[in-house]
Specification:
The protein is α/β, with parallel strands linked by helices. It is 34% helix and 30% strand. It has a five-stranded mixed sheet with strand order 1-2-3-4-5. Strand 2 (20-29), helix 1 and strand 3 form a beta-alpha-beta unit.
């Protein structure tokens, strides 16, 4: 679990699943809490790798959080890696839709869907 002074408001859990690095976000992603996500994404980008960011536990995301994800998408692309999003819902989904960011990321309803049958029932 990655956190900082605001770790009670926002957490990032990182795990490897079936060749992908899954970053599970929970809480509120904003200017004050974005640094742990930035650091986790920077550490997870590998040439040809697959990053899957699980937003299902995210209750809020502001423009800073969105910009971290957009920047990391470009960094991943430069490394020949992919950055995909899963579990967008509520106000987070709405913000992605309004800004058009939902059109630049591969989107999945859930991590289990993104990983497919190989992930098994606990995906």
């Amino acid at each position: 679990m990655v956190g900082g002074a605001d770790s009670e408001r926002f957490t990032v859990a990182v795990r490897a699943v079936d060749g992908a690095v899954v970053l599970e976000l929970a809480g509120e992603l904003d200017h004050d809490t974005a640094q742990p996500l930035r650091e986790a994404l920077d550490a997870a980008v590998t040439p040809g790798g697959r990053l899957l960011v699980d937003l299902a536990g995210l209750g809020f995301c502001d423009s800073t959080g969105l910009n971290v994800l957009l920047h990391s998408r470009l960094t991943a692309r430069e490394a020949g890696a992919t950055l995909e999003l899963a579990g967008l819902r509520g106000s987070v989904s709405r913000m992605f839709r309004i800004t058009g960011a939902d059109g630049v990321f591969p989107l999945h309803a859930s991590v289990a869907e993104a990983l497919g049958p190989a992930a098994g029932p606990s995906g």
